[in-house]
Design goal:
This protein starts with a helix and ends in a 5-residue tail after the last helix. The protein is α/β, with parallel strands linked by helices. 40% of the residues lie in helices and 18% in strands. The chain folds into two domains: 135 residues, Periplasmic binding protein-like II (D-Maltodextrin-Binding Protein, domain 2); 154 residues, D-Maltodextrin-Binding Protein, domain 2. Pfam families: PBP_like_2. The complex is composed of two ATP-binding proteins (PstB), two transmembrane proteins (PstC and PstA) and a solute-binding protein (PstS).
């Protein structure tokens, strides 16, 4: 009888230890930041946790600027940003920062015009002037000249922009500043910029907020990542690139733009105005931001998350409206992920 009680006690003790081990292996990762890659990241995280047993990944797309601030405040396990980080911001993070470009995307100009479902062309000297408030009606002669086959409506242009600190705004304004001197001098590039005064400009939070308003307002135009327009069924402008070619988003233009990109050692590069003939003109990398130092369990899990994004995750990118990373960039990112410790 005594021997039996000892065996029962030993079995119970083993169960308690096993339960403790399982509990110790449970890990909840919380991330904040860019809404630009959110549709893709949300799928990545869901698929990753199916095989990473005991791991939960919560991601809050509160904007690139807010994500960077969460990382600086040490209130996130990781962040995401289309603006990367400045050296000054990195210096404020006590545990160091590892910046990894994980995907890329096209910033599109989505519009809502009656009886015009798709195919509107905008020359490279025209779309900056729309955002400067110099072109205010869809029937403008310069838009009409580029679209002789289209009967354009006599309708005011309503611009929908981001209100929050936004990497999508940064990518757009960096491009507009590169191609238009007046825009560069009046507005400049940034996650938040001093837009030219315009009573037909509406500011709203997040990419999905811009998408929703463009859908609702006749005559609206707004800038979002291609995946948002694709999912919402919004038509997007065909933009003239540096080579003078009109290129629509969602085709080979994004990959052509990335093909000309070279990543330096810090893995931060901008594609302000790609020169390739087939390139879509507004393309950007987007980064995940990690601490250099954290617990062994957390660092290993985060490295595994990065590896998933670079392998199976890249296979999902194109179908969801993003640009798969070129193989040489994938290898650079994989090597740099070893710095997550």
């Amino acid at each position: 009888m005594k021997h039996g009680l000892i065996l029962v006690a030993a079995a119970l003790f083993s169960l308690v230890c096993l339960s403790a081990d399982l509990h110790a292996a449970e890990l909840r990762l919380t991330g904040f930041g860019a809404s630009f890659p959110y549709p893709l990241y949300s799928v990545w995280f869901k698929e990753f946790t199916k095989t990473a047993h005991g791991v939960t990944v919560d991601y809050h797309p509160n904007g690139s600027g807010a994500g960077i601030q969460e990382l600086i405040n040490n209130t996130a396990d990781f962040a995401a940003s289309d603006v990367a980080m400045t050296p000054e911001e990195i210096a404020r993070v006590g545990n160091g920062v590892v910046l990894l470009p994980m995907t890329a995307g096209e910033v599109v100009l989505a519009y809502n015009l009656p009886d015009l479902p798709t195919g509107l062309k905008l020359p490279r000297d025209v779309y900056p002037d729309i955002f400067l408030g110099k072109i205010t009606n869809w029937s403008d002669a310069r838009i009409a000249a580029a679209n002789p086959e289209i009967r354009l409506p006599d309708l005011p242009i309503t611009i929908v922009r981001r209100l929050d600190s936004s990497g999508t705004t940064y990518a757009l304004t960096k491009h507009l500043s590169a191609v238009n001197a007046a825009f560069r001098e009046r507005v400049g590039a940034g996650a938040s910029v001093p837009w030219a005064p315009n009573d037909k400009m509406i500011a709203v939070q997040k990419s999905y907020g811009v998408t929703a308003l463009v859908q609702q307002i006749s005559g609206a135009i707004g800038y979002i990542e291609w995946s948002y327009a694709k999912k919402a069924g919004l038509p997007t402008c065909v933009l003239q690139n540096k080579a003078g070619i009109y290129v629509a988003p969602g085709g080979k233009g994004g990959a052509a733009a990335l093909a000309g990109a070279t990543l330096p050692d810090n893995l931060i590069a901008w594609i302000e105005d790609p020169a390739e003939a087939e390139a879509y003109p507004i393309v950007t990398f987007t980064w995940m931001l990690f601490y250099k130092k954290q617990s062994a369990l957390k660092s290993e899990t985060l490295r595994n998350l990065v590896d998933y994004g670079l392998t199976d995750g890249q296979k999902l990118a194109e179908s969801m409206g993003y640009i798969p990373l070129p193989s040489d960039i994938v290898e650079k990112v994989r090597s740099a992920s070893a710095n997550i410790r």
